[in-house]
Input
Amino acid sequence: MQRRLIELFQNQAKSLNLLSEKDCELIESKHFPDCLEFLNIWHARPKNPCKVLDLGTGGGMPGLILAEALPHYNFTLVDSRGKKIKAVMNISDNLSLQNVRGIVNRFEILAHEPEHRGIYDIVTARAVAPLPVLLEYAVAFLKVGGLLFAWKGPNFHKEISKAQRAMTKLNIKLENQHYYRLPSGESRVILVFKKIFDTAKNFPRSNGKPKKSPL
Output
C-alpha cells in the first residue's frame, strides 16, 4: 500500500500545488523516511489505540503517512488551509483509511474547544513553527502525560534554548532527543516533549499572539 500512497501524494501535490517541485521529487527519498522515523521511537510503546493529532498537517506529512502505518490509531489532521485538508482526505478516501479525519481551523481556536482540549495522547508536528510557538499551539491538545513529537533540523539547539520559558509556563518538559540521518545523509532530530500538568486556560493565546509574541 505504501507505493500507492506515494503515488497519491505525488499526484495531489502536483495538481494542487501542495509542495514545491523539488519537494515533489523528494517525497519518496526524503519526506516518507523522515515521517516514518516516528516508528523507530514509538515501536517499543504499548500497542493500545491512541488518539493522535497532526498539527499543521499540510499535505498530510507525517499524519497521513503514520495513519496508514498505524491503522489501530485514530488520527485527526488539522490545518488552517481548506485545500490541504481536502487533498489529504482525498488521499485517505482513495486508500479507504478508516482512522483519519480532517479539520480546517486555526490551532488557537481549536485548542479551546472541549472536544479537542486535553484529549490527545500524541501530537505530531513537522515543519510547523519555531519551538516556542509550536509548544503553545500544541500543549493544550494533549492529555497530562501525553507526548508532542516535533521534527526539527540541525539548528534545534537554538530553538530549545529559546523555548525554556515556554516550557515552564506551559507545563511541558523535553523528554527525548531522537537523532537520525535521512538516506541523503541529512541530519535530523525528533524532539519528544511530555505534558506534566494541566494547561492554563489562557493558553494558547488567540488572534495570532503565539506567533507575534512568543513566550
The first helix runs from residue 2 to 15.
